[in-house]
Write a structure and sequence with these properties.
The chain is α/β, with parallel strands linked by helices and 157 residues long. It is 24% helix and 29% strand. It contains two helices and nine strands. Strands 1-2-3 form a three-stranded antiparallel beta sheet, with no helix packed on it. It has a three-stranded mixed beta sheet with strand order 4-7-9, covered by helices on one side. A three-stranded mixed beta sheet has the order 5-6-8. Helix 1 packs across helix 2.
Amino acid sequence: MSGREHHYDVTVRWTGDTGKGTARYLEYGRDHDITAPGKPLIKGSADPAFLGQSERWNPEDLLVASLAECHMLTYLALCARERIVVTAYEDRATGTMTEEGGASGRFTEVVLAPVVVVTDAAKAERAAELHHDANKTCFIANSVNFPVRHEPVIRVE
């Protein structure tokens, strides 16, 4: 299978105009809405460190969430193919971004820390190994230029 393309359409609409546009850096809002056909609205902003609102999702949150979500979905598919029954999965992912020179920055790593519950103790070791395979095949992890590390915990139910 080669050459398959998938396209994604989203709209990002700035809602932070306070009446003066971007006339002054400290006086405009960073709020925005993210929409896609048939999906719920996501209320976004900048990270509070960059004058955004903490109760809204920011691009950095969404990047870390995308990596964690893609890894989980890939991992669950691999487990299903190998007949490893997963009954619970929760990941508290963390990302580290470093500012460089004040005007820019970059992510230096994301650490995924999934806690996975499987039903068969004999398959727990393989369940742990599949995190490596999931990272190698996750579309989002393959699209970033920083390490995505894994610290999984496998529990048997």
